[in-house]
Every structure is written in C-alpha cells, then in structure tokens.
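User: Hey, my collaborator sent me this sequence without any context and asked if I could get a structure. I don't really work with proteins. Can you help?
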Amino acid sequence: MAEAVAAQVLGFLAAEPERIARFLSLTGLTPQTLRQAAREPGFLPSVLDFLLNDEALAIAFAEQSGIEPETVAKARLVFADDPQD
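Assistant: No problem. I've predicted the 3D structure and written it out in structure-token form, which is a compact way to encode the shape of the chain:
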C-alpha cells in the first residue's frame, strides 16, 4: 500500500514539469539519475516527504487522485517503521 501511494505521488509530480523540476532540484537528482534513484530504499519515502512538506501540493494531489493527505502520511509512517528506510 505505501509503495503504491508513493508511486502515485511520483506520477503526479512527473505529470507536471514544474513539480518534477522542483523535486529534482531539491533532491539533487537529474532526469538521468531519477530511474536509478527510484531503486534505492530511501527514495519512495523522500517522494512522500516532498509532498507532505508542501500543503498546497498535498491538497492538489488529494483533489486529483482522491487520496487524502492523511493517507499519504500513513503511508510515510509505514516506511518509517521499515528498518531499511
């Protein structure tokens, strides 16, 4: 469930050039390194953190996806409980 939510958030970010550009800028990733980074254990939690740290973005995601910010926060907690995070 947490992975699926994070994947939806990533898709939401990628759908809008300004959103994904901001994510890449803040994470230090590039379009070329994004795919490799996505395989790393800490990547999906960072996607959720990015969304949750921007209230307007979290609301826009909720409106578009039908997934409430609280659900995203719960997904983030799943990763926090994972010792690989």
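In plain terms: The chain has one domain: 2-81. You can pass these tokens on to your collaborator as they are.
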